[in-house]
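U., I forgot to send this yesterday:
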Amino acid sequence: MKFSEQWLREWVNPALSTDELCHQLTMAGLEVDAVEPVAASFSGVVVGEVISVAPHPDADKLRVTQVNIGAAEPLTIVCGAANVREGMKAPVAVVGAVLPGDFKIKQAKLRGVPSFGMLCSTAELGLSESASGLMELPADAPVGEDIRAYLQLDDVSIELGLTPNRSDCLGIVGIAREVAANNALVLSGPAMSPVAPAIEDTLTIKVTDSDACPRYLGRVIRGIDPGASTPLWMQERLRRCGLRSLGPVVDVTNYVLLELGQPMHAFDLGKIRGGIAVRQARAGEQLALLNDQTVNLDSDTLLIADEQGPLAMAGVMGGAASAVSDATSDIFLESAFFAPAGLAGCARRYGLHTDSSHRFERGVDPQLPRQAMERASSLLLAICGGQAGPISEVCDLEKLPRREPILLRRQRIERVLGTAIEDQRVTAILSGLDMQVAACDGGWQVVAPSFRFDIAIEVDLIEELARIVGYSQLPGRRPQGEMLMQARPEGQISKRILARTLVDRGYQEAISYSFVDPKMQALLDPQREPIALANPISADLSVMRTTLWAGLLPIMQHNLNRQQSRVRLFEQGLSFVREGDKTLQQAKLAGVVCGSREPEQWGQAAQRVDFYDVKADVEALLAIARLTDQARFVAEAHPALHPGQSARIYLGEQAIGWLGAIHPELERTLDLHGQSFVFELDIPAISQGNVPKFAEISRFPAIRRDLAFVLDAQVPAQALFDCIQSIAPTSLRELKLFDLYQGEHIDSGRKSIALGLTLQAQSRTLTDDEVDAAISTIVTTLRDQLGAIIRD
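Result:
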């Protein structure tokens, strides 16, 4: 919201400097983003009247003028502006004046004719970037008065960065209310009297969607002067608020928008057929907008229409077909309340953002449309003439927002703010903010005004008290509270420990968006339909991820493209999966790896990371919770993983994640340099581990037997482990794989696996016969079940 300080001070004029006023606004929650002068620095420019214009004797495009500036003699000024004429009043820079850019005016000769000053355009005074002629002043401008004083140019434009909840301050009156409340002053805005109807003309109004438009007002005004121009004071106020003049009718609606915060629209009455209908769009309807854009309307778009079709997109932008023009003499003026929920996202769907939609989406006072209509009617009649008809109104009171009483407790104020506020001051502050306040036992019953959509609960009222009292005036107290030690299961593993384990193994933590590129999502998990966002921030962030790989792989790709050849990243976050009509949020821990196994060094040659390196990282995570013995890595296919290097991870019969190399086709699509690996685990599954239990250390010797088996190459080592553990005696303490061989002396399609078995009894020394019997049983079982034979 950008506004003129002078305009604000017409409503409320505190005894504060500009800097103090800006600081007060910022501390009250209306952050000041910028303060800039409304005009560049210049001096020596006065109001002048052209009393004669004659051709230049030696230049066709120049004119010799006589200009009255209130001095004893008129000034001779040579001028090249096309619009200079006798009787015109314009700014005159006299000899000695200094214009913007440190341009000094001196006496000069132009083609042999002396010139004692310069007639100025708005561009030469720094009031606009360009101009087609002299700046024309009103006929009643006092000759000889300093132009800075006449136009009140010693002013600043203040720009506020308002948060979405403060839509009530998107108008001068709202900001003035805040300043008045902060300084205990009373508003003194301009008088706004109702306009008595002079004619009986009306249009029928039909509202078919009162949920989206609970209140709609319209008024016919006939006989306005098409040749009227916007007065300079209004043009200047619009300019200082960042709007340019577009003609008196549009300027008046924009002026009311800035003054009261109520968007309005004016239709050319002669272009409306029948009555006005406020309805939802119909299939196949189109609308040519004022910005020359033609849109195909969605069925949930609220329209202002007549019998022939759409006239405007309600609360967003008017249509070109019904717009006022230089020939318009009869208009239909609209003022309405559109529900924020009904217009939310409407403008964005069509790639639009207007002053009107900005306000309606955040909330406009539902009681304001009639006041705005009277104000606009009064200004229009004063500027353009004409006759106004009665105001037609359609209102569904049941659908208008209601303000329920809020209980504000005295003790609650002290508890939240850390200090007590006197009852009289509480009442004065809230009343100064236009709230209805009634004392009750223990506090007050408060009803917020209709323009404060952000006041709904007790803490909202306490925040208002803190704002007006001043945050800097609240005492600084350290909060005190009873700290309770929460019981935590001994086997629970925190996310911090999981993260630290991966960091210790050379990973770096990444944080990515939960919404991802739908193309990337489809490549990684084509079997699931992702949840699409209704209002995405961009097309490439428009669906919710079903796997964390969708965010990590683009990060790895980004790093590889910037000469980072070794990448090890992990992320802890949520994936989002739709099951039926429910959305499941699943906590995941995922990682991506590529490049060399170890950082570059002199002690060993570089080796590329492989499947088993990443498997070891996953096993390190499982080991924290002592789940390694229960985990199984089963070869299964995944659309994003290499067919020969992918594994599903199980705990018992529960699938808890995936591990594998990126599919070669996907690597080429993503332009990844070299083989890359990924893993993903369910955090709840690995966060609850086994608690260590005490076991007495045996005092008797252990016996180790090493066995090498030859078996089919397709049989996984896990099958041997499962088979041995199912028949092993209780004395088997350790089982480990220490060699894998394929090659010479081993038949094609077969492999050699060497296992180390350690046996130890708790209460005695095992005999060779007992060990031999156990080994014999294991060898026989492996041969019978898996076709494994002892290697010679």
